[in-house]
Amino acid sequence: MTMPWxxxxxxxxxxxxxxxxxxxxxxxxxxxxxxxxxIEVALNAEAVGSATADAxxxxxxxxxxxxxxxxxxxxxxxxxxxxxxxxxVIVVERGQAIAPQGPGxxxxxxxxxxxxRAIHTLVVxxxxxNPTLMLVKGSYRAGPxxxxxxxxxxxxxxxxxxxxxxxxxxxxxxGDAAQCTTKDSRPAFTAGGAYWLNRFMGGExxxxxxxxxTVAGSGGNAFTFTNTIEPQLMTxxxxxxxxxxxxxxxxxxxxxxxxxTSTTTETIGSATQTFQFKSRAWNWAWGVGGDVWMSGSFAxxxxxxFARVKGVADEGDTGAIDDHARAIVIGAxxxxxx
Length: 338
Fold this sequence. Notes:
With 338 residues, this protein is mainly β. The chain has 2 domains: 17-137; 154-335, Porin (Beta Barrel). The chain is built from 2 helices and 20 strands. An 8-stranded antiparallel β-barrel has the order 11-13-14-16-17-18-19-20. The chain has a 5-stranded mixed beta sheet with strand order 1-10-9-2-5, with no helix packed on it. The protein is elongated and about 100 Å long.
């Protein structure tokens, strides 16, 4: 039987054909049903078999068109009845009677008209509000089902890497130098820990250190200079999160304690002198980020952090620093304990 066209996909359903091994008869494979639930398959108004969903929510049942209808292919609609502790998949040839809906069951249609052939396996996913369908050429074997976790609570350790940038380093260091180049954005690593009282709020400590940030310049009278900054930032913050499935979006506000070593070397002609000072001080810090929990104890995360770095020299030569640090980091998190 041929048709000039067939609508295969609607908003509620997905139908694709993919290659696999050759099957001698049609099969119906159900995915993502509750484990241990009864799975039934009907062809038109006739029940053709039942099985129990395995631990991954899957079951496979034969539906042989040649044996039951003396046909090798049909144009069919597919329905799923969701009942108490039971799912039934109904394959209905166009124009034929459909199996009656059982008491307490909700019938949902997989949108579209499907050309079901002898080489096909019908893979029906019954999770969610609307079932979906794949027409697979040959047999079908589902891979392991990954079940996402909800965001963890309790003690969580993290580590990662990214970039740390000082926004105003070039402005202050270059001054009116005729030539000036900067490396004010450098690779950094971070580590820390957090304790989430629940999925919505907690507290966090973090540490970040980058490679040396540098500025180099020159001017008249054979004048050259280099300035390097070695930054370390430690933050203590309160954290508030909004979970959405396995993802938690969060913001944090608190204070940062910086330890910065600034070294400047100046050369005029053949004379060279070096100045160095260290600054330590508390200032504000805040950030935003999100983590994705792949399991109950492991997550990937990304963050954008901001911190004020301002202080005067408390060791070495006279000096001061007044800048804003920005850090973008990605990494992994691990929940500690049960």
